[in-house]
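Problem 12. The chain below contains 168 residues. Write out its predicted structure in token notation.
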Amino acid sequence: MSQVISPAEQKQIRLDRMRYTKNTLSSRLTLLAIVFNVLYFVSIYSTDVGSWYYTFLIGISIVYNLVFMLMAFLASEGVKSYRIGYAWLLLALSAGQIIRIFILPLQAYTATVTISKVTYPVMQTPQFIYVVVMLILSAVCCLIAGIAGIKRSLTLKNYTASLSEKAA
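Solution.
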């Protein structure tokens, strides 16, 4: 004979399971954001038009990519354990990815370089669209991971607080 579980009991079970399971949604989305970032920088750094890319800005971009990937990986591990601070970090990383669109890709897209009296665009339109889409996808993954991380962290925090009140 099967027992029917009410919606309230199902919610209680789901909340109780959160204490013993990891927040894999936020963690996996963050790892996906890293993958999109890698696709972005492979496209940018594989381009070689004259000496335009040999600037201080590229050096800063390389350092930022390394910092982004390290912080995103750290956040992916932190949000697994429902630590809300790492979810806030993901929101900041998301904003950083959006801001980056207006720095290197936009400058490269609007720039030209002259080689042997022939003017070439530094970045073609298809590549510009590709790198912008990669940054947007990375930002969206971080944003959703951060929002889900905050929501789930607060839900678990409130649930464990309610358990403490019931025990007292």
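Discussion. The mean pLDDT is 92. Students who got a different answer should revisit the alignment rule from Section 12.3.
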